[in-house]
Design goal:
Distance between the termini: 94 Å
Structural class: alpha+beta
Order of helices and strands: HHEHEHEEH
Strand order of the largest sheet: 2-1-3-4
CATH class of the domain at 50-154: Alpha Beta
CATH topology of the domain at 50-154: Glutaredoxin
């Protein structure tokens, strides 16, 4: 019959197993490759109140794209480079673009009925002519905007 090890040795063994596991986690944290995602920053003008939105929409004859997003939204960050390319491609006379952070402009988000992010609206002459929810790639974004612009020109 085998004797049980004394209680002190058993708890000491558990301590060393735990300490070894902690050391392994620390080493992996320090030496693991850094794969943090850097958030794309928006260069779109920000709107924070309904008065800002009303002024932006009524100050132009061009369609206005409103992007509702939040800093913590991964799909929103992924959409930023595509929106930047769209902004660079379009003249302001063809499409004006603004960003609305739902955390900074809660009343605007409520007014537009925002339920998911990102959400894009295209407003023309004071009327919402199109909206789209969710992430999208560059081709999908450009195609959607072109389709809406064609619809606006036809009306």
């Amino acid at each position: 019959m085998q004797d049980k090890p004394p209680a002190k040795l058993s708890s000491l063994k558990g301590f060393f197993v735990l300490a070894g596991a902690m050391m392994l986690v620390m080493v992996m944290t320090v030496f693991a490759p850094q794969t943090r995602t850097v958030a794309a920053t928006s260069s779109l003008p920000q709107l924070e109140t309904m008065d800002d939105v009303t002024r932006a929409v009524s100050a132009t004859n061009a369609p206005v794209l409103l992007q509702f997003d939040a800093k913590w939204c991964g799909y929103c960050r992924a959409l930023q480079p595509h929106l930047q390319k769209l902004r660079e491609k379009n003249l302001q006379s063809e499409l004006e673009m603004y960003q609305i952070d739902i955390d900074a402009a809660k009343d605007v988000a409520v007014e537009f009925g925002i339920r998911s992010l990102p959400t894009l609206f295209i407003v023309h002459k004071g009327e919402v002519v199109a909206f789209k929810r969710g992430g999208m790639d560059e081709d999908e974004l450009f195609g959607w905007v072109a389709e809406v612009q064609k619809k606006i020109r036809g009306s």
